[in-house]
């Protein structure tokens, strides 16, 4: 009969077929199968397979999430680290129109933008911009997106108020070739307490920029710290560190937060697709 034994990696028990051990230093559940120890890191949480994705109609479909304070990444003077990720399949022409917006944060009734995580409409590149109250920003961009292709896109920020503190990831891999797209003399994250918007940008009452028809989006995740490269690879593989995850939107026939309590709202309705990411 198998046994469960707490240990650390330096005093792992003698291998016995069927033996189970829990390593307290690495938080691994490990099993000896007769050939080798095989482990599962239980720092993360896995969810079931996807069956649906968010499929905006290109006219007025987007999601809004009220900011209860958990989506405020700075106090107007000092920035706080954060990370975001999403699966995205771009429309056939990602450089046309208003680009493809993954996650944005802006003042829906006046001036002020805090975050743009998207594909830039001008050059078709994945980018993250973090803006201050005067409209200056720090940001980087990287790869040009290909149409009708699924990508897992992640971004991290270390809170140092420099573009060098931003990283972009594609399909679990750190983007090593990036460009500085900062503008002006950035002071600090625009702490407007604005809502998050998924799949578009609501800004200044008359500027409503929606993702073009043909875009698909899934598994939007928000984290309260800068993820490591290993952790972002884990997210790409569906393993979310529960101690750092704020919210996760999976679009399984609803707009609920699958991890926290920050449910999204679809003010104009939402369309789902049975086409899902790999």
Shape: globular
Strand content bin: 35-45%
The profile of the biggest β sheet is: 7 strands, antiparallel
Low-confidence region ranges: none
How many helix segments?
A: 1
Order of helices and strands: EEEEEEEEEEEEEEEEEEEEHEEE
The whole-number mean of residue pLDDT values reads: 88
Strand order of the largest sheet: 7-17-9-10-11-12-16
Whole-angstrom Rg: 20 Å
Helix percent band: under 10%
Question: Quick one: how many beta strands?
Answer: 23
Gap between N and C termini: 38 Å
Question: Which descriptors apply to this entry?
Answer:
278 residues; mainly beta; seven-stranded antiparallel β-sheet; six-stranded antiparallel β-sheet
Report on this structure.
The protein has 278 residues and is mostly beta strands. The longest helix is centred in the last third of the chain and has 8 residues, at 229-236. It is globular, with a radius of gyration of 20 Å. The mean pLDDT is 88. The protein contains one helix and 23 strands. The protein has a seven-stranded antiparallel sheet with strand order 7-17-9-10-11-12-16, with no helix packed on it. Strands 15-14-13-8-20-22 form a six-stranded antiparallel sheet, with helices on one face.
Summarize this entry quickly.
The protein is an all-beta fold.
Secondary structure layout plus pairing:
Blueprint (H helix, E strand, L loop, with lengths): L3 E4 L12 E4 L4 E5 L4 E5 L2 E3 L6 E2 L8 E3 L16 E8 L10 E7 L6 E7 L5 E7 L5 E8 L5 E8 L8 E5 L2 E2 L4 E2 L15 E3 L1 E4 L3 E4 L5 E8 L5 H8 L2 E3 L3 E5 L22 E2 L5
Parallel strand pairs: 1-2
Antiparallel strand pairs: 2-3, 3-4, 5-21, 6-23, 7-17, 8-13, 8-20, 9-10, 9-17, 10-11, 11-12, 12-16, 13-14, 14-15, 18-19, 20-22
């Amino acid at each position: 009969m198998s046994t469960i034994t707490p240990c650390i990696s330096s005093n792992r028990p003698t291998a016995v077929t069927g033996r189970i051990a829990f390593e307290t230093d690495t938080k691994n559940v490990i099993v000896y199968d007769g050939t080798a120890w095989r482990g599962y890191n239980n720092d993360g949480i896995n969810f079931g397979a996807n069956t649906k994705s968010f499929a905006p109609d290109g006219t007025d479909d987007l999601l809004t999430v009220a900011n209860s304070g958990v989506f405020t990444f700075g106090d107007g003077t000092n920035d706080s680290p954060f990370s975001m990720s999403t699966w995205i399949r771009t429309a056939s022409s990602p450089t046309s129109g208003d680009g493809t917006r993954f996650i944005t944060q802006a003042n829906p009734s006046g001036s002020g933008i805090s975050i743009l995580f998207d594909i830039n409409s001008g050059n078709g590149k994945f980018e993250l911009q973090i803006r201050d109250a005067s409209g200056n920003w720090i940001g980087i961009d990287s790869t040009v997106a290909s149409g009708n292709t699924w990508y897992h896109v992640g971004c991290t920020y270390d809170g140092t108020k420099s573009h060098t503190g931003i990283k972009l990831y594609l399909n679990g891999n750190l983007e090593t070739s990036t460009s500085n797209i900062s503008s002006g003399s950035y002071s600090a994250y625009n702490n407007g307490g604005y809502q998050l918007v998924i799949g578009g940008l609501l800004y200044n009452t008359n500027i409503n920029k929606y993702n073009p028809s043909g875009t698909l989006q899934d598994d939007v995740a928000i984290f309260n710290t800068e993820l490591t490269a290993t952790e972002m690879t884990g997210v790409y593989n569906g393993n979310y560190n529960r101690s750092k995850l704020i919210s996760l939107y999976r679009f399984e026939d609803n707009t609920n937060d699958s991890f926290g309590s920050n449910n999204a709202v679809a003010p104009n309705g939402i369309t789902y697709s049975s086409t899902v990411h790999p």
